[in-house]
Amino acid sequence: MPKNKLEDVVFTAIMATVMVYGMIVYNVALNTGKVDGTTFLAATHELIFMAPTAFILEFFIVGKIAAKLAFTVMKPTDKPQFITYAISICICCIMCPTMSLIATCLFKTPSFGTWVQTWALNFPMAICYQMFYCGPFVRLIFRLIFRRGKNKENAMQPPHEEA
User: Fold this and answer.
1) Each residue of 116-161: pLDDT tens digit?
2) How far is 80 from 84, CA to CA, in rounded Å?
3) What local confidence, expressed as pLDDT, does residue 65 receive?
4) How would you class 41 by CB atoms within 10 Å of its CB: exposed for 0-12, middle for 13-18, buried for 19 or more?
5) How far apart are the two ends of the chain, measured CA to CA in Å?
6) CA 22 to chain centre
7) What DSSP string runs through 36-105?
8) What's the pLDDT score for residue 163?
9) CA–CA distances in Å: residue 81 to residues 38, 63, 74, 84, 125
10) 3, 21, 23, 41: which is deepest, by most CB within 10 A?
11) d(CA 15, CA 124)
């Protein structure tokens, strides 16, 4: 995980871009009723605005709030992996309604009902995508970019399990 500001910026930029792109693809697929090459291409148009928006929100506001929320149920002595999961879930719980509101205002007919519907459709996907695909993928990319100490040789190897 990030150890300094530069690493935090890089990690957040990668995470925001991958997460936003996946969620835009999901929403385009919902709107068109199909997933094909045009779905992935169409998602790039919104990505140009939505990824920087997500980065700014997460880096300057949501990340700090999510960490505070996560530590209301986690202790600093808990396993780092579980702390990471708790923070990721808290970030999703804040970013999903926020980004759904922004997308509703920009790309749909803005109304409270439309926002709630968008949020409700996005939330299960956002949690699953973050926890099972995007989060692990971005952490792997991050480890490959910022290899440390013994991890330089073992960046691609799974951790050893103790018996």
Assistant:
1) 999 999 999 999 999 999 999 999 999 999 987 655 555 455 554 4
2) 6
3) 98
4) exposed
5) 26
6) 9
7) SHHHHHHHHHHHHHHHHHHHHHIIIIIHHHHHHHHTTT--TTS-HHHHHHHHHHHHHHHHHHHHHHHHHH
8) 42
9) 37, 17, 11, 5, 21
10) 23
11) 18
- Longest Cα–Cα distance of the chain, Å, equals 56
Determine the Cα–Cα distance for residues 16 and 22; give it in Å rounded to an integer: 10
Tokens 């990721």: give the residue. 88
Q: Which residues of the chain carry a pLDDT beneath 70?
A: 149-163
Residue with tokens 């990668």: 14
Residue linked to tokens 């980004």: 99
pTM of the model: 0.88
Gap between the Cα atoms of 117 and 68, Å rounded = 28
Segments making up each domain of the chain, as ranges: 5-141
Q: Compute the distance between CA of residue 85 and CA of residue 52 in angstroms, rounded to an integer.
A: 23
What tokens does 39 get?
Answer: 């779905």
